């Protein structure tokens, strides 16, 4: 079994569109949307969900005003500035509360208790050529890295069940906690780079991260014709750090048209130049795998 | 007054809007700060010519365990909500997993042996750059490998004087880094694009802003590309449509080169000035409506 994560550092470079296209090319696949914070892959792969589970993202403290004597001990212990004191009345600032429970433990009046946040969900569904695992972190909730781990565990379990050799992970933007959870232990990372100064800057930061975790890394340049000089610069830089650039895709309205129609571009326009280029990228990703295993 | 520019989906044009808005305001002679809170991938500096005037490290506390004093009772492990302490009593082993620590202090409170003290660990840097008379760029940047940018973002938001007008480039998404930014902002500008991905992520952002009771307006970027469903959603929910920025290959080109469209295309300079006056008018109206 091989796990491939599609990541980018910078948002909006085309991770989900490329993930959807690659996912529809495989004979059998488990697709895992690990951008649990702003999941989009399901809009294209359109899974028929047959399983829905609750994810408890964390807890928040609640003060019972009837028991609270406003002694302020909780406030003195809280390191998250999550307790306010207005005119002697103590309140939890819900958006700042980290759920550490220390206030509950220090309260001499037992006036604080913890409430679980259980609005987040994760799902397993059927797609045309396999299964899809996706999730929805309720807006404003914590611990997206933990939910990513659940999605990935479930993806592995499902891949084993249906005997799929490939897990494709559509990752979140950035380089923080959910990204780290998306890439640790995968076999390959495919980075979708964009030829802009911001894109290059963000690419370098995420490459530093993939190297920190020693994950085999490949690069695809998307919308390469936006700035040819910068695309060349990306190719040269990748060569200098020994990362293979396995494809360059032009800006193509067919990608937008496909998305508007909730289709992958490889399904929407299968014989287009861009779909053929994506097929070559897919073959290269898998080829490298065969070469390695022999 | 802090105006934060945000979007659920990455790459919709947050940085485009925040840097250009900042640019036209400071060039009309107002003192304004640009705060880059996209601490995982800060990019505003690519577009703004500015001189570094100060920098400071942001640190968090990490527990240090005195193994002579530790009785391996495991109470700290039980109190830690982040699985950042591992205790194996039989082996008399205790270990702090620094990456997982949230610096809450529960372990120290738990320890009956007084075996826990603290050291500090750098998680990021805040840099301040002077742009023009009274205007500055404040950037937060987390270290690579650090899990959470939230403590850094809280500090960055405090770095701008509350009386100064500030434009904030928010991190993408709707989880902790986004909330840390939104909580400290007075008005939100949501940037979206007219595609199903843009719409889906806009809905999530709107949901959380309504929960938090924040006033906000929406900018549709790359207008002309995609379809009309974003507009249907805005109209149906009676949301404030602040502006549309057309799908214009010259914008993408200019952005890719690290140039501001309000500097090299006069029509966009005017466009962003008008956007700023619409935001101002709305803020005025908003304030009046509370009195």
Automatic annotation (TrEMBL), chain A:
- What is the name of this protein? 4Fe-4S ferredoxin-type domain-containing protein
Check the record and name the SUPFAM superfamilies matching this protein.
4Fe-4S ferredoxins (SSF54862), P-loop containing nucleoside triphosphate hydrolases (SSF52540)
The terms under GO molecular function for this entry are: iron-sulfur cluster binding; metal ion binding
Which InterPro entries does the entry link to?
A: 4Fe4S_Fe-S-bd, 4Fe4S_Fe_S_CS, CobQ/CobB/MinD/ParA_Nub-bd_dom, P-loop_NTPase
Task: Tell me which Gene3D superfamilies the record gives.
Answer: 3.30.70.20, P-loop containing nucleotide triphosphate hydrolases (3.40.50.300)
Q: Which residues form the signal peptide?
A: none
Q: Which UniProt keywords apply?
A: Iron, Iron-sulfur, Metal-binding
Which domain of life does this protein belong to?
Bacteria
- 4Fe-4S ferredoxin-type domain location is 59-88, 89-117
UniProtKB/TrEMBL annotation, chain B:
Residue intervals of the 4Fe-4S ferredoxin-type domain = 61-90, 92-121
Keywords assigned: Iron, Iron-sulfur, Metal-binding
Domain of life, source organism? Bacteria
Give GO terms: molecular function aspect only: iron-sulfur cluster binding; metal ion binding
What protein name does the entry list?
4Fe-4S ferredoxin-type domain-containing protein
Q: Which organism is it from?
A: Sunxiuqinia dokdonensis
């Amino acid at each position: 079994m091989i796990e491939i994560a599609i990541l980018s550092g910078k948002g909006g470079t085309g991770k989900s569109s490329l993930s959807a296209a690659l996912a529809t090319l495989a004979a059998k696949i488990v697709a895992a949307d690990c951008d649990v914070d702003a999941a989009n892959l399901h809009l294209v792969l359109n899974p028929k969900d047959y399983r829905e589970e609750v994810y408890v993202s964390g807890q928040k403290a609640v003060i019972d005003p009837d028991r609270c004597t406003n002694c302020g001990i909780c406030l003195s212990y809280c390191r998250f500035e999550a307790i306010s004191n207005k005119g002697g009345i103590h309140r939890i600032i819900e958006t700042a509360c980290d759920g550490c429970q220390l206030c509950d433990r220090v309260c001499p009046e037992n006036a604080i208790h913890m409430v679980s946040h259980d609005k987040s969900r994760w799902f397993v569904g059927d797609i045309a050529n396999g299964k899809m695992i996706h999730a929805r972190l309720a807006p404003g909730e914590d611990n997206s890295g933990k939910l990513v781990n659940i999605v990935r565990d479930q993806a592995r379990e499902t891949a084993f069940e249906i005997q799929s050799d490939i897990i494709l992970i559509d990752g979140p933007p950035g380089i923080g906690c959910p990204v780290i959870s998306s890439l640790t232990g995968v076999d390959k990372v495919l980075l979708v780079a964009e030829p802009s100064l911001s894109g290059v800057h963000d690419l370098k930061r995420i490459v530093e991260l993939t190297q920190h975790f020693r994950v085999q890394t490949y690069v695809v340049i998307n919308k390469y014709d936006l700035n040819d000089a910068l695309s060349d610069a990306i190719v040269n830089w990748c060569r200098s750090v020994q990362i293979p650039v396995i494809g360059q895709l032009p800006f193509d309205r067919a990608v937008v048209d496909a998305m508007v129609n909730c289709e992958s571009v490889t399904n929407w326009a299968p014989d287009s130049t861009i779909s053929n280029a994506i097929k070559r990228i897919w073959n290269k990703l898998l080829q490298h795998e065969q070469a390695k295993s022999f | 007054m802090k105006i934060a520019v945000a979007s659920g989906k990455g790459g919709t044009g947050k940085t485009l809007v925040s840097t250009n808005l900042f640019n036209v305001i400071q060039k009309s002679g107002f003192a304004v700060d640009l705060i880059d809170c996209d601490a995982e991938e800060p990019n505003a500096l690519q577009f703004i010519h500015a001189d570094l005037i100060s920098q400071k490290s942001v640190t968090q506390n990490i527990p240090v365990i005195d193994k002579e004093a530790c009785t391996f009772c495991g109470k700290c492990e039980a109190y830690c909500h982040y699985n950042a302490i591992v205790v194996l009593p039989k082996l008399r082993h205790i270990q702090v997993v620094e990456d997982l620590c949230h610096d809450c202090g529960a372990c120290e409170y738990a320890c009956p042996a007084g075996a826990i003290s603290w050291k500090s660990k750098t998680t990021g840097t805040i840099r301040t750059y002077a742009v023009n008379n009274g205007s500055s760029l404040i950037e937060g940047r987390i270290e690579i490998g650090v899990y959470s940018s939230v403590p850094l973002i809280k500090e960055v938001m405090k770095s701008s004087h509350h009386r100064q007008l500030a434009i904030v480039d928010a991190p993408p998404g709707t989880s902790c880094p986004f909330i840390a930014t939104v909580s400290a902002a007075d008005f939100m500008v949501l940037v979206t694009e007219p595609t199903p991905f843009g719409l889906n992520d806009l809905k999530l952002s709107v949901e959380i802003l309504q929960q938090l009771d924040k006033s906000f307006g929406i900018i549709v970027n790359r207008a002309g590309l995609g379809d009309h469903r974003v507009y249907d959603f805005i109209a149906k929910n009676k949301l404030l449509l602040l502006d549309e920025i057309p799908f214009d290959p010259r914008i993408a080109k200019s952005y890719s080169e690290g140039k501001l469209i309000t500097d090299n295309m006069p029509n966009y300079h005017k466009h962003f000035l008008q956007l700023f006056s619409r935001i101002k008018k709305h803020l005025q109206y908003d304030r009046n409506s509370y009195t």
